[in-house]
Amino acid sequence: MRCRVVVGAEGRRSVTREQAGIRLHTAPPTHLITGLLVDDVPEWPQDTSMSGTQGDVMFLAFPQGGARLRVYRCTAVDQSHRFTGRDGTRRFLDEFRRVSCLPWAAAVAVSRPIGPCATFPGEDTWTDSPMAPGVVLVRDAAGYNDPIFGQGLAIALRDARMVADLLVGQPERWDACGLAPYALERREGMRRLRFTASLIAALQAEFTPAAGERRARFYQRVRAGTDPDLRLALAGHRGTGDSAAGSVHAGDAQKHRWCASPFIMISG
């Protein structure tokens, strides 16, 4: 079978990318991310997602409907075995008992796991161009963003929509020139996402004493309202609720401009 263009969409270890000779750049991870899907957390409000840092862990939680919740914990890169083994899932949930700045931590700790507990590096990858003669890459095959930013699905949908529109809209130009708008937008979009993800990682997923002091200064300045540019850092994380020292301030109306449900950032 002969075709005019091959769309490579087979994920991070793309064979199409390798065979086309498209180079994948990788930024070394600064943290690890462990995720788990749980059920039986009726206490968690389904209109609220949350992110925060306490001790040597950053946590994230996203309601999935009903009483389900997808929870993540970011740890240092030397903690790859922290949640592995037969009892890794239980250790993962048990650690929520010690998260005093999370209002529903106890409910998460006794939730029922309904998926695997997997740990993966928080790294950024990208291509200079997701194209080669007769080939265009989309989704993770073209490079993926650090999951700490939660943009994987959005990137995939945007890629698919843009490539499809270009192919359908100009069937006579299925070449590098015709697909150039996609390549240019993706390159710039991934650059911006790398910057935002690195900012979030430096703020929330570093666990040295100096990093803790930096977080404290950041939230103090945010609450003081003297530097409006700091709001952009939180806005990049899809929300602008703020808190510190374990208390949650959910009254910031700006957060609704960035996501359908409140997204609260907390630091303890």
Summarize the structure.
By secondary structure, the chain is of the alpha+beta class.
CATH-defined topology of the largest domain: FAD/NAD(P)-binding domain
Report helical residue fraction. 25-40%
The oligomerization state is single chain
| Number of DSSP-assigned strands | 12
| Name of the CATH first level of the largest domain | Alpha Beta
State Rg. Answer: 20 Å
Write up what this structure looks like.
The chain is globular and about 60 Å long. The chain has helices at residues 15-20, 88-94, 105-109, 152-169, 180-204, 209-224, 229-235, and strands at 6-8, 25-27, 32-39, 49-54, 57-65, 68-75, 112-113, 118-121, 124-126, 131-132, 135-137, 263-267. The chain is of the alpha+beta class. Strands 3, 4, 5, 6, 7, 8 and 12 form a seven-stranded mixed beta sheet that branches. The chain has seven helices and twelve strands. 35% of the residues are buried.
What attributes characterize this protein structure?
single chain; 268 residues; alpha+beta; FAD/NAD(P)-binding domain; seven-stranded mixed β-sheet; three-stranded mixed β-sheet; 7 helices; 12 strands; 21% strand
Topology overview:
Elements: E1 6-8, H1 15-20, E2 25-27, E3 32-39, E4 49-54, E5 57-65, E6 68-75, H2 88-94, H3 105-109, E7 112-113, E8 118-121, E9 124-126, E10 131-132, E11 135-137, H4 152-169, H5 180-204, H6 209-224, H7 229-235, E12 263-267
Parallel strand pairs: 1-11, 4-12
Antiparallel strand pairs: 2-9, 3-6, 3-7, 3-8, 4-5, 5-6, 10-11
